[in-house]
Amino acid sequence: MKMIVGLGNIGKKYENTRHNVGFSVVEELANRYSVKFDQEKFEALIATTFVNGEKVLLVKPTTFMNDSGRAVGPLMNYFNIALEDIIIVHDDMDMEMGRIRLRQKGSAGGHNGIKSIIAHVHGQDFKRIKVGIDHPQQMTVVNWVLSRFSGDERPVMQTAFDHACDALEYWLAGNTFMNTMNRYN
pLDDT per residue over 100-156, tens digit each? Predict the structure, then answer.
């Protein structure tokens, strides 16, 4: 079983904000597989599909971003999912807008959602797809991550979401994550 978790903040107020790019990616992937987030369990919305005979959970935590681990840890334990079968999709301010970067594991890098997940799963050996949102130039970090993309930025970000979904589908098709990183980084 695999679990792909998109990080974001739940609610209309936060829809389509920079901080919610993880939600955008898993929603796009759910559209590709024609599944809906119709199950709620352990503070998360879940869409379920099967790829190559393997069950895949697409997850949007309903906690705030900084408490994402409260959903991820219990889901991992309940479904008995190995850490190496989890991918977390999240925003990254230290990357150029629209770039994606896949990583095998690593530290939180200052991302509070990732810090929470590391604390709740007791390790950092889970895969990540980081989606670049740039660093704010003339506003606070909080205002930046909670702002929406401009008209010029939207197509750039849609390309990033598509690219991230392509990478996820490639991995789900049975390719190693190392091969997926080599192809999509």
Answer: 999 988 877 778 888 999 999 998 989 999 999 998 887 788 888 888 998 999 999
Where in the sequence numbering do the catalytic residues fall?
19
33 assigned binding-site residue = no
**CATH node for 2-184:** 3.40.50.1470
- Asked if residue 14 belongs to a known ligand binding site, the reply is yes
Region for residue 11 given its phi and psi (left: phi exceeds 0; alpha: psi -120 to 50; beta: otherwise): left
* Global pTM value: 0.94
Question: If you search the block for the tokens 């929603």, which residue do you land on?
Answer: 27
Instruction: Report yes or no: 57 and 79 within 8 Å, Cβ to Cβ.
Output: yes
| Geometric angle at alpha carbon 144, from 130 and 147, rounded to 5° | 95
User: Token pair for residue 163?
Assistant: 């690219």
pLDDT tens column, 33-55: 999 999 999 999 999 999 989 99
Distance (Å, rounded) from C-alpha 75 to C-alpha 42? 6
Q: Tell whether residue 179 is among the known ligand binding residues.
A: no
